Amino acid sequence: MILISSPQKALPSLIAGSSSGLSFALKLFPIYAVWLAILNIWNRLHFDEFLAKKSKNILKKIFPGESNGCYNNLAVNLSANVLGMGSAGTPAGMNAISEMKQRKNKAMLLVINSTSIQLIPTTVVALRSTMGAATDIILPTLLSTLVTTVIGCVLVKIFVK
Question: Is the full-model pTM beyond 0.85?
Answer without folding.
Answer: no
